[in-house]
Structure formats: C-alpha cells, structure tokens
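Please predict the structure of the following assembly.
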Amino acid sequence: MYGGGYIQEEKQEATSPIDDSQKLAEFEARIDRGEKIEPHDWMPADYRKQLIRMIEQHAHSEVIGALPEGTWITRAPGFRRKLALIAKVQDEIGHAHLLYSAAETLGKSREQMINDLLTGKSKYSNVFNYPAKTWADVTVIGFLIDAGAIVNQVANSKGSYGPYCRALERICYEESFHLKQGHDAFITLATGTKAQHDMLQDALNRWWKPIMHFHGPPDKISEHTAKLMRWKVKMATNDDMRNQFLDMYVPKILEIGITIPDPNLKKNEATGQWEFSDPDWDEFKRVINGDGPCNAERLAVRQYVEEHGKWVRTAMMNPNQKVVIPFA
Amino acid sequence: MSKIPLNTPVLDPRIKRVDLESTYGTTAIGENEHWISWEVFHQKKRGDQHVHVGIVHAPDAQLALLFAKEQFGRRLACVNLWVTKSSDIFSFSYDDEDIFDNATAPEKQYREASGFRVMEKINRYKKSKQKA
Amino acid sequence: MEAIKNLLFRMADDELIYGHRMSEWTGMGPIMEEDIAYSSMAQDKIGHALANYSILEKEFQTAIPDKLAFFRKENELMNSQLVELSNHEYDFSLVRHFLFDHADFIRYEMLSTSSFVPLAQLSKKIKGELKYHVLHADTWLTRLGNATEESHARMQSALNELWNYALGIFEPSDYEAQLIAEKIFDGEKVLQRKWMEKISPIIEKANLKIPSSSTPVYGGRKGYHTDQLQPLLTEMAEVISSEAEGTEW
C-alpha cells in the first residue's frame, strides 16, 4: 500500500540498461492487451524518461504558445473576439497545468520542469518561435496550428500512459473550441474586405513553412522509434500525422479562396500521400537549436514572468508541508 | 547579464512595457516554490458522487479550492468541489491488483441477479401443469 | 432616463477598462493556477461590460456594444481613474482587485432591488461570479498581508498608492437625487459607506492600515483621465479601427 503519495526522492528506477526481463514482458503484455500503465506501475527506465520528455515538452509548448497569441489579447477586435481569445489563451495555460501534472506523476517536479524550460535544456514546439505580426496570424495559429495539434493529441490520447491520456481527453475537448473559433476567425478574414483577405494570405504565406515543420521531420525508423511505438509512447510517424493534417485541412483552406504558397503541394492519389517542396529542414534544426526569430524573446518573457511572480510564491511557502508526488 | 539577442522586434505591447533585460538569464525556481499538491474531486450535480478530476498546487486548502474552481469548474457543470492534500491519499499498489481478480468471476454468480434463472423454473412448472 | 444611462456607462466603462487591465495578466501570472483564475475574472468583467452596453443598446437605442467600447473618445469614458492605472506588479493588481471588486459586489447587491428591471436582473445573474471575485481578493489580501515582511510591505505600499483612487469610484454623479428618488440606485454615498464597513475588518485582518489622510481622486466619471488611459484605448482599437466601422472581424 502507498500512503500519502510517494516521496520525490524515490522517483527513478535504477537506470540500469538491463531491466528486469520478466517485468518487462509483463509490462509489454499489458500494453499489447490495450491496458493503461499507471504511475506506480513498474516501467522501463527508458519509458519513463521518454514520457517525461514528451509530456514536459508538450506542457512547455502550451506555456510558450500562450505568448504569440497573447500578443493580440489587448488588441482583439470586438467583444466576441476579445473574450474568445482570453478564454483560449487561458485554456493553453490550463492545458500546460494538466500536462505538467501528468508529468509530475512520473517523478519530475513542476519546478524542475520549468527550470529546464528557462535554461533552454528542455524544448517546446518550434512554431512558437515565430512572431505573430498581425491579427491574421492569430487566426492562422488558432485554426491551423491548433488543427495540427489536435491530430497529434488525438493520436497520443490513445497511448499507454494513463495520466497523459486522461489529460489529453480533456485537452482535446477544449481544443475543439479553439479550432472552431480559429476557423471562424479565419473564414471571416478570408471572406471579408480586401485588406482583411490580403492580411490573412500574407500571414498564411509566412506560417506555411512552420506549419509544415509542425509534426517534425520524417522519422528515421530506428530500433528506438520502433520500441517507442510498441510501448505506445509514440503513436504515429511524423509523416503520417502531417499527411492526415493535410488531408483534413488543405481543402478547408482552398475552399474559401486562400492559396497555399507551395506550387508543388499535391496529393498523390496512387499512394495517398501528400507531396510538397522541401520545407527547409535545416531552418527547422536552426530554430530548434535556439536561432529562430523569437526564441530569445520567448524565454526572456518567461524568465521575466517567473522572476516577478517569485515573491508571491515564496511568500506562501510553508517548510512544514510534506511534498509528495501527486496522483493526478 | 548580456543583452537579449533579439532577432526580431518585440510585438506584444504588454511585453514592450516591461524591462525584459532586468531578469534575463538569472531566474531559477526554487525547490517547493510551487507549494504542495491537492487532489480535486468534482461533483457535477446534487445527488452525484464527487469524482476525482486532477490536482492543483496551492499553499493551503482555501487557495486550493479557489484554484480548483477555475481549473476544474470553469467549463463544466459543477455544484461542489472537494480538495485534499495528495499526501493524505492512501492507495493499494498496482502490484496487488490481483486481489481484485475474481470480483466478477463466473463462480461468484451466486451474488448476481443473472445467477438465478427464475423464469426457467416457472415455465417448467407451467408446462408440467398443462400436460397434467 | 439620462440618469440611468449615466449609471450604466459608469458601470460598463469601469468593467471594460478594468477587465482589459486584468486580461493583460493572462499567460503572465505568478503561478499557473492563479493565472487561470485571474483570466476567468477578466472574462467575467468584460462580460459584465458587454451586458451593460447591451442594456444601453436595447433600452435606450444607443450604438451597438462594440461601437460603445471600441470607438468612443477618451473624454467620453466615465470609468473611475482607479481602473485605468497600469498594472504594475501583482501586489498593485491584487490590491486594486480587492478595492474595486468589493465596491462592484456591493453595487450590484444594491441594484438587485432596483426599480430598473434590466439591472436588477443582471445583478441576480452575475451574483455568483462577483462572490468568487471577492472571495479570491480577500483570500490573497489576508494571505500576503500576513505572510512575509516583503509581501506585507508590498501590499501596504500598494494600498497607500491606490487608496485615493479607490475613493474616486464613488465620485457623485449629477443624478444622485433622481436615482435615489426613483428607487433605481441608492447612490454613491450609501455605496461608499457600505464598502468601508465591509473592507475595514478585512484590511485589519490582513494586518494592513488604511492611509490616514485621504483625498478622493475625482474626474474619471466626468471624462477626465490619467495619461494611462489613452494608450490603452489606442491599443484596444488598433485592429478594429483599421477597417470601416461595422466591418465583421
């Protein structure tokens, strides 16, 4: 029996390369049966490590993702957009909260995760290192980045780790509002005045490359990837998810008179796969490694926010309280 | 600390108003700075059970309730919430999951409604009456 | 009629500008749980502004809410100067939240029996939201007032800075007598008295002191504002005013 959670010091199994083979067999059999893994279960060290990395990055992406859209909170045009945008950015912070909670159950504290974000040790989605220059950028993000995220999140919600799946179920429910409000704002601009239409086309032209980067470069099908897919940590290849996204959303862009800035984009009906120009994977790598248009600003803002909230947090600290890993 | 190597100008008017340079590269969150965690139980409507829905970090019960209200009660129907410290939750280990194994086993049908075939017996009786 | 319109504009403008200031914290709060809670209150306030502008449109055939909120000139706004001040740090925002929301809560409580039915109905509808706002404010004020030397000093200094502006909430209008006589609203004087009675013991519980000398900052209700309002309005209207009025966004 576990009393009162389990303490943080106990968090990691020995990182021995040889996990107990019988336990591993039971673990894999459970996943094969479609059952979920829960926080206190035995799990291979690599499973824990990969999940923490993935869920943490997902959480960071929500926190940082709040920034480009937050850019337009004080300038949103009209009550309806203003309220929806505040609610949407609020949801992103709410999602980060749910995701950090899920990652916490694996033994890494929220403080540690945020520190790793602030130092650049832990990554977040590359797209948020691009600027939201106009109101139309918010509609592109709200519609297409959220759409891309939903493809990813729906796949991951069928993964093997219970707390992550539970968090994603709620997140997907809220994302459906994000997508709808993004789509609505996108259509409004596309079918609005000439200036609105042009602003949207310009925004999509700038965002298309990051959108194509969103699901990541084509996977190298390594033994490691195969293992993560068997363990239901990774649920689909990057190309599969990108393909699914293009299938669903290219028609929705074209049907309202917006063009996509890639003359080579087309679906190969024979293979069912989309073909497109090289989206510049070198740029993707440069941005991941810190040299994107907004990397420095994004982290500086988070550092500023954390520093200025510190007095509130430390004032309320109570050294007599017992900190345990939550159940979530 | 060095100047922030901004590649593009800051666009958010909220950020333009603050002095980003002042904290650049200096911040770290201390251990336990996010307080302890509280498990949150949500009651959808009167008459329903409270159901566990997640956690919040808070320094005390009252703030935990205030935070839980917005994180777990802002979008869903809700009439009441409970919070309890995560450290006050006790649970079985999943290693002992087998102690629950036979709860729904066929041998335990004697405590299920489906374990009793009343109609069969009634029909048999009725049939024998008809013959007689 | 002018009396009710004036009251509605004062309330709506307060809520719009204050909600806008609150929304500047969205995504930038001291800890994510608080960030979420604060964003909800920002939405509530802006929602209350919308509700009041909608009453103006429906009952008095004014322009639509978007026009009232996004296209009026600075000297046409009747909000108290308290709500337009920049956010500063979280201490300043929390103390303003405490001072404003108690007045807001009591104002709507008084309006729940108003002879002007739309306001009485609105009051009943948003009572729960306001109750949460006040509970949230009281909790933080009493916690941080009593926590550390630093947090206490910060809260006291914010209270000192904000006090005179808070008294400006109750700047009397030209219609006080009429509002009272027609049983629409019991007036700013009664509101201020009830507010003092309500907040004094909480401030004491927070180990804070109400500044001894007080000079209310009036002017906001008549369209006189600090230099912090115009930049807010320019920013708020940047996108919507880039196209002709009435364009859908």
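Chain C has a mean pLDDT of 98. The domain at 2-242 of chain C is CATH 1.20.1260.10 (Ferritin).
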